[in-house]
């Protein structure tokens, strides 16, 4: 269905049931999905679909509660793909029944603007999330239909989408509006792909094309509400929602990070479907800006809580990093689409960086608690997430839920759908993006190719592929050579071979025989990574990275006062696999120096004295697994000495 | 009038018309006071006293506009003390006439709650600043009466204070409330001192004693407004306004920093007047907490904009430091009172630290622009003050005014009143706190002692005192030996002498003859200061300080990328006086290393390489004068290498 000749191999064709991601997906299915359903129930989010809210209820719906149910349904759908589960499917169907009943005669569907503030329907696109909620429900409907073949939610959302398509558009009597929180654009492209109805693609394109045009729609609707569009706008700038200029003129990633990346993903979808090079050029510029100037080493983006988003080039604070889980997830969505517009490993390198670090840090190892913000350093009482009062907590820890609960179900739907990020096909080639134990059946040239990956990546350097092409078939197996890897070796059936590399993918072009074996070894030395010198926060510091995995020091392993730990340049840390730690991870150990911080006077300041440094053995663990043991300090960027 | 035997020498007896502070006070009088009046006029703050506000006006009063006029009047009053100025006095009288007319028949006086929301009088003490405004008006009234003898504003405020005293109190029918923004407590003690009316002292004591008692008054009034006292309270904690526990049980400085220090100042006043050791003990604990764990080297306090206040021990971020100008000023107020409760130099050391650094940085050298927040490092586009949208400015610069305009007139009243901080008298002694060219007539033992200080402090180490005691009189001249000074020499009439030192004051006890000369030399080597190791932000860094003056590097002198400047331990910086720079300041120059930041790839991250370091000559200027030349980076805490 992609206009572009390269397309992802669908989730249903890829099974990840072992290895690093197998464990995470399993936890997601067994722990996270049920817990999230319980939270939806407990907090009133499911009951709210009955639209019978009144002041006597124990809850009051938020303006975007709909999206929480939607993302959970979408996650459940993906999970059902590989793990049929009657109980789960019945729960989803119950929620869908409620949603269907909540649809208004004209097709409109929204909890808050039906049950709480019906008078405010479409009154504030800028701040009030109606189109955002619609988008998530469309995504859920498409996913659930694709997995189960059940049309109920899809039909509901088609009715709603038709209604939205009547309300919004360029014609007389229509609103020339667009969402304040982007999301529906990419959802409408999904709806177009599943229904074949051009109108949904057109509407997605309209929302994208109209954004940032003069006069700003958000100003017009603010005035219609009797508000001053500038003075009464809390965010103070249209950059907050990326409507400051038309999207094709945007050159820097600005504003709310999730809004931004959902929009870029939607732009990429529209670009793919409409073959629009002007959108692609804008996206490439924006990609360059975010990855070269505004992204944490973890793939986290959006450094500040002030706008939950971007600030300026090279501004990457560590302990107050917002780096919202949803923003890293949105970066994954965008990166994946970029590859299919512009098949280059650099997009998947970032996707991998985010997955193994800034996304996965968002959920505890047991799948039950979640980070909203993902700082790169932690100290007692430093809390980058505003949901917790400043002085009510000593340690920044994962939470069971949030009032604004976008991140937990977003994690769930990403992990449950991880299979779709492993492979793509196109131009007589199979692209391998991610290395992970997985089995796949890949349609190529009217043939089904079976590929099984065996690997303990990212802990091990070697990935083995068993390729079953029956009958034998000629095609290219294109293996991503990650940007962090400086030495890759490929063997086919035990024979070392050299390959052409195109756009970062090593191309093995041959006629594949049943039982062919490929062995890829990605040299994975421990690296000390430094940051661009203009990132003032990391001056004099480095991070430990091995393969795609960024490491950190935690207090539980290294004692307190991590700010006073120095790793001497001549230290030679070693990597060992610890099967008993955190479910089995590679750890880094080595010699460090710690400043003796005892015997200070009762004073904040004193004339400097030569610090007494004591050697000790440090241990670093993968950043994504921090905060799974006893609370304490954490630090990614380490002082070199 | 102080119950305590030590009391400050009043402003009217001390003239500072030369030297470091003479220049600042002169600028304050010539530039700042007129500009602030123009701003009050231009923004509607004066017109608003007419109480004829309606939606058609170009302005809408804030809830605490009254306080802006009040602080300006108070500043003008202090200025008139040494510089009679008919024009200025006429302007003040005009404003006072408006204020008088704005008083309601029952004595109530407030712009917003008369002209805009009369129905909300006293409805929300927690957030709405009525008592705060009353306090500032009382301070203005007392000051203006003391200088001019004119009673109009004083009488207005006496009527208002009587009305407030009827409304609030422990008796039946009275509200057991207290201010959400403390300030009136110290003002009521001033009113008590000038009128001799015990009821004002009692009311101040009531506000202090009642604060933090159960059930919390702020919760009761929130419920009366139909609000949930927790969920609907934006700050989320009573710590925000220091009403979480009774004041005598408080052990840590918490919440909004200005509220906190105004309260501590008020507590000190009540403690002094009521001889209450329980208040003094609480204040000493709080003092210890703030100065040993929560204060910048500049005397700035309150590191975050989230609550405009305190966070937790040892949390002192630099480039996002809030360190509100008003908070440093409030610390001066509190410190001064602490000395008079507990005569020890440590209080004046902090007062001096704040004055020369975190207070004075709040105003430009020409007196026309102001900082609200006073960060200790600046980078393009880093903006710790929320009044400016995040991405609308490249450099954090002083502003001409603020919507919330507390800082500019607070600076004006402090500078105009600086004379009162120089000396105290008590127990047959004259205490010299501040070293600054000044002339004073000091009443001691029914005699007037004239003291003239001659000094170019803080640039020079030597202070000369000419003491005229006619007839000769026996008393102690107690000279503060600042905490930063490790070698002080005293000569009397050219003869070196050794003295007893008590609580940090060198006591020269003799019978003074007319024409006696004292020469104090405070050894003022350049020091590298380090921070308590638990302040993670300053790990591996030091600051340059000489005497009370903290230094910083600015981009205009040192080029960009200050994060990559290293001052080698063996560097021996020199101090020179540059009469052409910033009105004449001592500068520090020396050898530093700068990392070569050229030739980076278009990437944020790379495997570490050995940095190439280039030597260069650095120049540091006094922190208080930063941002007076071309915009750029600034840094107080420097990397040692």
Brief digest:
The structure is a homodimer of 641-residue chains. With 641 residues, chain A is α+β, with helices and mostly antiparallel strands. Chain A is 34% helix and 20% strand.
Write the layout of secondary structure elements.
The structure is a homodimer of 641-residue chains.
Chain A: E1 7-8, E2 14-15, H1 19-42, H2 65-82, H3 86-102, H4 112-116, H5 125-128, H6 130-148, H7 152-167, H8 184-195, H9 198-210, H10 217-224, H11 257-274, H12 277-293, H13 325-341, H14 345-359, E3 377-378, H15 407-416, E4 423-426, E5 429-432, E6 438-444, E7 447-455, E8 462-469, E9 473-480, E10 488-492, E11 495-497, E12 500-502, E13 505-512, E14 516-522, E15 526-531, E16 541-546, E17 549-554, H16 555-558, E18 565-567, E19 574-578, E20 585-595, E21 605-607, E22 613-622, E23 634-635, E24 638-640
Parallel strand pairs in A: 5-9, 18-24
Antiparallel strand pairs in A: 1-4, 2-6, 3-23, 4-5, 6-7, 7-8, 8-14, 9-13, 10-11, 10-14, 12-13, 15-16, 16-17, 16-24, 17-22, 17-23, 18-20, 19-20, 20-22
């Amino acid at each position: 269905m992609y206009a572009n000749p390269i397309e992802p191999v669908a989730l249903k064709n890829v099974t990840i049931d072992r290895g690093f991601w197998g464990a995470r997906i399993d936890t997601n299915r067994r722990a996270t999905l049920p817990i999230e359903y319980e939270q939806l129930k407990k907090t009133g989010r499911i009951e709210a679909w009955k639209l019978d809210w009144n002041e006597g209820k124990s809850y009051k719906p938020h303006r975007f509660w709909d999206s929480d149910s939607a993302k959970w349904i979408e996650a459940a759908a993906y999970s059902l793909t590989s793990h049929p589960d009657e109980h789960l499917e019945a729960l989803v169907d119950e929620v869908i029944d409620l949603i269907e009943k909540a649809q208004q005669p004209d097709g409109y569907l929204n909890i808050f603007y039906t049950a709480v503030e019906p008078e405010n329907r479409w009154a504030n696109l800028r701040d009030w999330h109606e189109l955002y909620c619609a988008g998530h429900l469309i995504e859920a409907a498409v996913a659930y239909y694709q997995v189960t073949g059940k049309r109920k939610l899809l039909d509901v959302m088609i009715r709603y989408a038709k209604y939205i398509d009547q309300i919004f558009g360029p014609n007389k009597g229509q609103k020339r509006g667009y969402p304040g929180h982007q999301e529906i654009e990419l959802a409408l492209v999904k709806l177009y792909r599943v229904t074949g109805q051009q109108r949904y693609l057109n509407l997605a394109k309209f929302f994208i094309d109209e954004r940032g045009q003069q006069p700003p729609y958000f100003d017009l609707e603010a005035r219609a509400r009797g508000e001053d569009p500038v003075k009464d706008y809390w965010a103070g700038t249209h950059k907050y929602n990326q409507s400051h200029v038309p999207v094709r003129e945007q050159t820097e990633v600005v504003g709310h990070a999730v809004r931004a990346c959902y929009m870029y993903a939607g732009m990429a979808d529209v670009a793919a479907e409409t073959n629009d090079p002007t959108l692609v050029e804008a996206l490439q510029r924006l990609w360059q800006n975010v990855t070269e100037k505004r992204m944490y080493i973890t793939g986290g983006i959006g450094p500040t809580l002030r706008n939950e988003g971007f600030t300026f080039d090279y501004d990457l604070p560590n302990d107050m990093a917002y780096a919202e889980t949803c923003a890293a997830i949105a970066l994954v969505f965008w990166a994946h689409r970029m590859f299919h517009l512009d098949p280059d490993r650099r997009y998947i390198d970032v996707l991998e960086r985010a997955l193994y670090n800034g996304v996965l840090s968002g959920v505890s190892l047991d799948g039950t608690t979640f980070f909203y913000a993902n700082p790169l350093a932690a100290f007692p009482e430093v809390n980058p997430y505003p949901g917790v009062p400043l002085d009510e907590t000593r340690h920044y820890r994962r939470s069971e839920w949030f009032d604004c609960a976008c991140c937990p179900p977003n994690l769930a739907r990403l992990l449950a759908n991880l299979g779709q990020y492993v492979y793509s096909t196109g131009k007589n080639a199979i692209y391998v993006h991610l290395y992970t134990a997985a089995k796949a059946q890949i349609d190529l040239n009217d043939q089904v190719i079976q590929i099984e990956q065996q690997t303990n990546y990212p802990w091990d350097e070697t990935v083995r592929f068993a390729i079953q092409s029956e009958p034998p078939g000629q095609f290219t197996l294109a293996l991503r050579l990650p940007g962090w890897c400086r030495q890759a070796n490929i063997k086919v059936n035990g024979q070392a071979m050299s390959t052409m590399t195109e756009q970062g993918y090593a191309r093995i072009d041959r006629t594949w025989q049943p039982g062919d074996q490929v062995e890829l070894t990605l040299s994975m030395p421990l690296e000390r990574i430094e940051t661009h010198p203009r990132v003032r926060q990391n001056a004099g510091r480095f991070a430990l990275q091995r393969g795609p995995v960024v490491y950190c020091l935690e207090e539980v392993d290294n004692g307190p006062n991590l700010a006073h730990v120095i790793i001497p340049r001549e230290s030679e840390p070693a990597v060992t696999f610890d099967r008993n730690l955190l479910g089995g991870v590679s750890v880094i150990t080595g010699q460090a120096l710690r400043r003796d911080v005892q015997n200070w006077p009762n004073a904040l300041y004193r004339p400097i004295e030569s610090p007494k440094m004591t050697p000790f053995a440090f241990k670093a663990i993968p950043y994504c697994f921090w905060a799974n043991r006893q609370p304490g300090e954490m630090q990614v960027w380490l002082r070199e000495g």
